Protein 1
Amino acid sequence: MDPTLLLAALFLVASIVTIRFARAGYVRPLALLPFLVGSVPAAFIGGGLTLPTTLYRPLVGAVLLVAAARFGWTASNAGADFPPRAPWPGAVASGAGIGLLAGLTGTGGGIFLTPLLLAAGWAGTRFAAGTSAAFILANSVSGLAGNLASVGSLPPAIPLWLGAAAVGGAIGSQLGSRRMPAPWIRRALAVVLLVAGLKLIFLP
């Protein structure tokens, strides 16, 4: 997929999801700040690195598969939702690691942040989803601005792709922020992590 198209879709979907979760009370900007402090410069560094795909893709893919198995296995024990409570040093350091991975893999980083927040016990299920959506939004804004500055135009297919992305984002965010039980959200996350992990390991 065209990088500009991908970033535009990420921006649109992340905007919809962030707004929905924020209206439901699951986004805390101050809790997101330390992760962004670490991720923004690290993502810039990661984007400039050229590592052998045979080195980092299987490693990152394996991490995602382990996370998928963990969340699928423990989904029924999701527990109560609670606001983000990550310590600043840990959040900044984690943000840097996620930013580096995001730069290397060309993703928004949310696929790494959500399982981290849940596994570390730093946020409840819906608060983790809302925080990650805002995290992706911030990163996609930066990436889209830089990409548009370099290419100067949008792909012709962008209205169709953005329309489909908007519909999917609206439905998913409504289910995730208000209707879907937390165990189901964790199972959905496990599926996403499984697909992403397998893609990194087996697809070029």
Protein 2
Amino acid sequence: MGQETSEKIARLEREIDELKKENERLRRLLEEALRSAKRQAAPFSRQGPKAHAQKPGRKADCQYGQQCRRPIPRSVDEVIDVLLPGRCPHCGGGVQERGIVSQYQTEIPEPRVKRIEFRIQMGCCRRCRRRVQGRHPRQTSDAIGSAASQLGPRALALATQLNKGLGLPYGKTAAVLEEAFGLRVSRGGLCQAIARVAHKGEPTYQALLEQIRGSPSVTPAETGWKVGGKLWWMWAFSTAQVTVYAIQLGRGFEQSARVLGADESRVITPIFHIRTLKDATVMSRFVPWSNKG
């Protein structure tokens, strides 16, 4: 083997080593990029510390930022007198009173479940002989018998807000009600109760639809929404006063017409995709858009 061949082999081996090192470096960078793209919970960090990190905490003087403090309540429900101790806690000497100062505390009242019994008068019609029963405004249903024990309107409103407004699943919504108020309810019971709330809200929803359809300008938008593991679309239709949502199977003219109707004279600003529900409420400008487009 000649000297030239040996030098060539040595050069190729060096290049192979350099390529292996470069490959390993790129692999690490790829793993870090994939790892940083995933959501991580605190206290884990996605990247290393900064070389010249700023000092933590509030800045001094004019860089402190907006100063806020809890306002003193306008009304007080309870006054508690806090007496001086008989002896100084530091040296045991006598204590002399010099005045009284006030401290305020805003507290949540102790939650408790209120159980109400409705004693319903039952009767029948003298003409058609059908059953007739009384109804109180605080009742949430006419059901009796095996379905006589129900949730009250405040409990239903809180459960609906936790599940639909804040996005808690039924299991966590039931856990909040039990831990905070001692109110035990099953996930299936919550699902059925919230479905009944939606049924009672149907007239209000229809009134909002009529208001949207009567508006001269509307901003529609849609984003993906899973129903039973399948892709549907959550539509948002906004005016300056109202926003109406509709979860539908498609994202075309047929679905928009179910909400808006086929009104060719309406001015529509298309937002072809939204990332958050708040995007649908932004109405920056209106441009003509054909419903057939």
Protein 3
Amino acid sequence: MLRSTYDESWPELWKSSYMWDDLELWGSRRNLGYSYQYQIRREWSLRTIGELVPAGGAILDVAGASGNFTLPLAEKGYRLTWNDLRPEMAELVKRKYEFGEVDFALGNIFDFAGDWSGRFDGVLAAEIIEHVAHPDKFLACLAGMLKPGGYLFLTTPNGRYFRAHNPRFSDCPDPSVFESMQFKPDTDGHIFLLDCDECRTLAAYAGLAIEHIDLMTNPLTRGHIKLGRLLPYLPARLVWALESGTKKLPRSLRERINGQMVAVLRKPEK
């Protein structure tokens, strides 16, 4: 994946994406809490896909934005379909493209449901489901795009994290009231935050089996409760050691102190 060279003449969306790339990929120390937690979930996603999807498999990256998952997967030999609502993002991803097979599909993911039935070996939805007014229908839509035996890789903020304040989907009598605000980016666009139990419920509704579900990123790693002030002074190896150590804590405690949920869902074989 190529690194873009910043240009003042760029559209504002490209400038914003460049700033996030600097935090996510290129070692900026301006917000280490964000950089650490992004690196953790990105590495989990790329590693887990590599372990479960056969080489050369077809993968859909839903709302793939600046291509930071799409492009490295294509470079590993997967056949990628990048999807997003914003046409200008496709042009930015093409500037970062180096090699590999990538198709670009602009538009609302729900509009592709019929054409993409049973098409993909893997679907990645990284930090997307919390921006959707109907997460149950969203998972069912993605399940329909999977081949039998295919995998859905899901990352989303943990709804039981002690700093999570968004409502649960199951507690909302009429989620359609949120349709006007769905698909907005960043944390301002969060609608519902799922916890592990609700993820299991929605997976069952979509006809998917939970293969793996886990929690990660503690308050230090995320830079929360002012711990971000410490991160510039702590060796990275210590931060990673403390992150690994929290995985040994009781599950009930981890549900409160880990801000990230990751899950692998599988479509049953026919």
Protein 4
Amino acid sequence: MAQTYDVIIIGSGPNGLAIAAYVSRDLLLSNARDEVLQHARIMMESALATRAYTSKQVRPLLETQMKYQFLPQSVPAFAANEQFNDLRKKFIDYDYKEATLNPTNPRNRATDWETDVVNQFRQTPDRTEIIGERDTPSGRTLYMARPLQIKDSACLYCHSTVDTAPKTMIQLYGPANGFGWKLNEIVGAQVVSVPMAVPLQNAQRAFYTFMGSLVAVFGLVFIALNVMLNWMIVRPVAQLSHAADQVSTGNFEIPEFPDGGRDEIALLGRAFNRMRRSLQKAMQMIES
């Protein structure tokens, strides 16, 4: 019986720990990724709010001055980028960019991987969001992108042809880039990037803490169960085996096996004692 219990405990323990480790680690990493994604969504909505504020409240106030000097501050994309540039002074790994294939402002030109994201939107116009991960020099980063599509014909005033664009804008940025846009065309993508290092580290730390606690509890339970098995089963059976061995050699001087209790060991002890007394009487009758 003792061997059976040992097999059950030792055999099921590592399997249970492995399953618990797999499930808990997957859950913690998934929660960490969801946390990072939530930060990315907040950044994206903040950028959209800045764009809307600039378009509705700032740009109208600068229309007169724009006739004499082009002010980038009136451009929603410029305002959103400037806001996040200030944010990056404290959170350097957080980034926002309006990555454009043919931008007026050179700083908005899409890099190689951003160009791939923009092309995915151009190939599937119905797609509204792309979420992915990429490795950077500072660690793993999650990015979320949404398409920049020309839905307002007013945007074409600055980006259709050089002839129709404001002369003050051409004086600032030149006539080489940012033209030829068409209505409903996807010209770029809003991309926010959020570092995953800290949330992943927190998830790993929580995982190790949980598994360490689980292993400690399992170890204590394992020791307690083995002590109980040894005290309640292995030790009494060993005593009963020794007594049976002595009786089998004709030694009836040993004390009877303690048979108090109602468990199986006590029942076995009472049966053994009855057999011992019967055998002793039989031997006495034979000798007389």
